[in-house]
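User: structure tokens for this one?
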Amino acid sequence: MREPKHFINDETLNDNIKLFYSDIVGLSKKLNYCCASNKYFSDLYNVSESKIDEWIKILKKKKHIKVSQGKKIRRICVQI
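Assistant:
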């Protein structure tokens, strides 16, 4: 899956958020959702877990992702 053109051209999103979204897309290929934790992403990007939470909120607000919380895992689904 490639990122939609409107996403790539969205100048309100910084490059880190776009890269983060791309990783979510890649991690969603097998199960159609990503269940990686904020800790996983914070270690990957060398940023705080609160920064990852901020990026998730931005992507949710812009309707690029949908997040649901299961009993044990969080599911991040890419919205097309």
